[in-house]
Design goal:
mainly alpha, about 130 residues, 6 helices
Length: about 130
Amino acid sequence: SDHPEIQAEIYRKDDRLLTLLKDVYVESRDPPVRVKDGGGEHLPCKQEEKRLTKLGHLGDVDVKKVPKGKISIVEALTLLNNHKLHPQIWTAEKIAVEYSLELKEVNSLLEFFIPFALQEFPKETKKAI
């Protein structure tokens, strides 16, 4: 605004340039996609569906959300213990529905992970052992 002659020059129409621009044709194409190892690492990943964990009184020591199809450590220990104590109530099918898991994964979990029970012997029997 200090130099009105510069402002006038900026806003002046150049008829010769406008005529030349009418003859310009631009065609734009994306470069061909090259597939290489690890090429998908820059693609936006699909948003994972998450669920709130069922933690009960141990909520302070575990995560609050997990992806569907996964469980937290506290949930795993809880469901294994529930199945051990009440297998007729906490069946694999009920656990799969309750924790949004695949039934075959729940069956594998129940087969290969069994929580152990800690037993303490009274002091007088320790000597006998």
